[in-house]
Amino acid sequence: MAGLAAVVLAAFTAASCGSSGPETTADGRDVLKLAIATPTWNAGFSTLAVAETRKYFEQEKVDVRISLFASGTQAAQQVIAGQSDLALVTAEPVGIGKEKGTALVYFAGYYPKWISNIQVPAGSGVRSIADLPGKRVGVTAVASSGATFVRTAMSMEGQDPESVKFIPIGGGAEQLNAIKSGKVDVLGLWDTQYQIIENAGIGLTPLPIASTANLFGGGFAVRADDLKDRRDPLTRFGRAMAKAMVFAQANPEAAVRDLWKLHPEARGPASTPEQTLLADQAKVLKVRLDGQGVEPGHDRWGEMDEKAVAATVSFMKEAGLIKKTFPATEIFTNDLIPEINTFSYADVRAAAKAAK
């Protein structure tokens, strides 16, 4: 955990090497460079594809350029160093960064709930955190939020995080092969990754850990200065994402197809029937859509619960990720949410129902 904090601090130190400033396209769209934490494209990020293919980004006059990184820490680094304008990240790097002097602020939620936990493949002898010492833990990357959570859970249970070996297993086929071959004993991943694994026929059992049921998971974060200086394009980006969320909730299968159009590698094995792939990936997307506030009767995407954010800050203090707590409002704001949601939810739902 001290190592993770040092990585975030190093990124802050490198901020002076950042980009030269805002860019616009020839047709007047604001360029926004987005860093996301995933080793591969998967259905959990279908909403980003929807925003592109359904031209929601274009309608809102933003040109969003997405880069993938192996961990939330690396994605946060990109924003801190000025290489990206915003990042889709979980709470740990933002909380640690706040303590180290990096002012990142969430302007829209994307993970309304805590997404990391620890699970073991069927047949494993691991039954609790106390069984972890000496085991091989599969993570997307050693600096990933999943790995951080494993260390955190072990520390909170009085176990030594250095007693396990973290094995980077990436995502996609590499990840599944590592599990099936017995390369790892335990998994430190997150909700959509576990659904992907279960879709592949691998049974999983979560380990009992300290409750994270009421914690905030994370979202879209920017540097505090950019939140003020680039409020308008960030609001328009958020509105495009809100539309994409509404579309995906109304027609998850069409959203997955949008992902396949932009990123064919996310489709899956050619030998698997298309309807099977579609059904499985829709399950992954539905995991991410849960709690987003876009289902009928709830027309307010991206709003963050101050109590949940405050609970997450307290959890990070209790887990030893930060030395002292701070007001939740120092790392999030709902100021843009009313403007982000100024569009017709009904019109987007109707378009989604008619889509194929």
UniProtKB/TrEMBL annotation:
| MF terms in GO | metal ion binding; transferase activity
- Give the GO terms filed under biological process for this record: thiamine biosynthetic process
Pfam families registered for this protein in UniProt: NMT1 (PF09084)
The protein's annotated catalytic reaction(s) are: N(6)-(pyridoxal phosphate)-L-lysyl-[4-amino-5-hydroxymethyl-2-methylpyrimidine phosphate synthase] + L-histidyl-[4-amino-5-hydroxymethyl-2-methylpyrimidine phosphate synthase] + 2 Fe(3+) + 4 H2O = L-lysyl-[4-amino-5-hydroxymethyl-2-methylpyrimidine phosphate synthase] + (2S)-2-amino-5-hydroxy-4-oxopentanoyl-[4-amino-5-hydroxymethyl-2-methylpyrimidine phosphate synthase] + 4-amino-2-methyl-5-(phosphooxymethyl)pyrimidine + 3-oxopropanoate + 2 Fe(2+) + 2 H(+)
Pathway as given in its UniProt record: Cofactor biosynthesis; thiamine diphosphate biosynthesis
Task: Cite the entry's keywords alphabetically.
Answer: Iron, Metal-binding, Pyridoxal phosphate, Thiamine biosynthesis, Transferase
**Gene3D superfamilies attached here?**
Periplasmic binding protein-like II
SsuA/THI5-like domain segment(s): 44-255
Q: State how it assembles.
A: Homodimer.
Give the protein's function. Responsible for the formation of the pyrimidine heterocycle in the thiamine biosynthesis pathway. Catalyzes the formation of hydroxymethylpyrimidine phosphate (HMP-P) from histidine and pyridoxal phosphate (PLP). The protein uses PLP and the active site histidine to form HMP-P, generating an inactive enzyme. The enzyme can only undergo a single turnover, which suggests it is a suicide enzyme.
- State the similarity comment: Belongs to the NMT1/THI5 family.
- Protein name according to UniProt: Thiamine pyrimidine synthase
